[in-house]
Amino acid sequence: MDTPVESVIRQASSSCKTIYKPTLATYEQWAATYDIDGNFLQALDTLEIEKMLPYFFDVLPPAPKIVDLGCGTGRNTACLMRVQKARILGLDNSQGMLQRAESRCRSVMEVSEAESLDFQIWDMLALQESEDVPDNVRGADAILSTLVVEHIPLRQFFKACSAILKPGGHVLCTNMHPEMGAISQAGFQDPATGEKIRPISYAHTIRELLSCASTWGFTAVWGPKERKVQESDLIKLGDRGRKWVEVHAWFGVILRKL
Question: Which of 178, 222, 232, 238 has the lowest tally of Cβ within 10 angstroms?
C-alpha cells in the first residue's frame, strides 16, 4: 500500500501538462480565479491563521502600522482591519492581485476598526539595499506574510522584513510545509487550456527558515506549528485536499525582530 506521499506522487504523475512561468506572470494570470478555484492550502491557511491572530494582535502596540507583505487578493489583509486604529499597507508585485485586494477590502474598511488602508505595487525580489525600501513602507510595527516565502529566497525575504520592521516588531509567516513542497508547489489549472501553470518555488525547510531568520536578527516567539491534513478537515478544505490526507501541508511561525 502507498504511503501518503507516494500516493500523491503517483497521482501527480498522471495529471495534466504543466507549464512553468515566472512568478509574476503566473500570479497575473491566476488573479482572475485565485479566490474561486478551490485551493485547499489557502483554505487550510485561513483556518490556521485564525489560531495565530490572537497572539499576533496581542503583541501589537496601539495604532500599529502593519504591512501585508505579498498581500495577493487581500484574503488576510481583511483580517488586519479588526485591529483598532491600525494603519494597513498591502504590498504585492502583481497589479491583478492588488486590484482584487482593493475590491475585497474597501467595503470592509467602511465598517472596520482600522484607521487607514492602502495598497501598493512593490517587488521584494528587486530589493538590493535596505535604503531601497520606500519611506512609507519603513517603520512598520508588524508584518503579515502568508504563503509567500515559497516564492522568495530566504535571504531576500528576511532582508525585506528587516528593512521594513522597527526593532521589536513581529512577523507572522506561513508557508507550504516542506513535506508537501518536496512533491508539489503552488499553481493553478488554466480554465482555457486545462494546463497546470506553476511559478518559481522553493521548498524551504523549517530549520532553514529559522536559521536564516536568526542571521537577520529574528527569533521565534510562537511556533513553529506544523499542520498535517486530516480526513476530518475535508469538509472545510474541499475534495482537492483528499490526496493530501496524512501529509504535512502547512506551517506557521511568529518571529520577533531583536
Answer: 232
